[in-house]
Structure formats: structure tokens, C-alpha cells
Amino acid sequence: MTEQAECIARQVFPTDLELIDIIHIPTANCFYYHNDLRSAAEKIEEAMAICKGYPDMLPYIDKQAELLNILLDIYSAMENRVKCRELIAEIDRINEEYKEQGVCREVSPDIRKQLQ
Hints:
This protein is mostly helical. The chain has helices at residues 2-12, 16-33, 37-52, 58-77, 81-98, 109-114.
């Protein structure tokens, strides 16, 4: 079903950023709220792979940082502390590398606190 929606969306929306916002994130949210955390993570990881296809484009770098935060919420719900630490490190790296260009995605202080 989501493949059909994605096919139709590709005909209407010209950028991959729009597809991420219209297909990937809402689909992941549905999986998340139906407690299918693995599928939610997979859908966000698909979106991250799209972003990585645009390594020099700031909007995709910023979207990747946003997606990392979404993944962090998912893996936090899965109680996967190792993966959460990896995701926080990657968010922090992106924030540091691109802060001059205005990329800054805050990690939830509650999640950071849980991992101490």
C-alpha cells in the first residue's frame, strides 16, 4: 500500500524532501503508534538513505538530522541504549559540522539523561 502511495506521490511532488515529509515520516508514525517499532525504524532509515544521496545539499543534511532524532525516539522506545548513543553522537556531529550553516537539531534532554 505504501509503495502505491509513493508511486503516486512521485508524480505529484518534485523533490525527495517532499516525499520524505509526505510518505516516509507519516508511514513511520503509523507504524510507531501501532507499536511496530522495527517497521517504523526501517521507514525512517529508508528516508535517511535518500538524504545521503545528496551529501552536499544543506536541506538534505538538515532533514537527515531531523530523521536521526525521529530514529532516536524509536530506538528509545525499543530501549536500545547502544543505538541511542550512536544516534546522539551522529546528531551532535552534524550539529557541530554544520552549525555555521544553521543546522541545529536538539536532542531531547530527557533522552540524554536516560542514557547517562
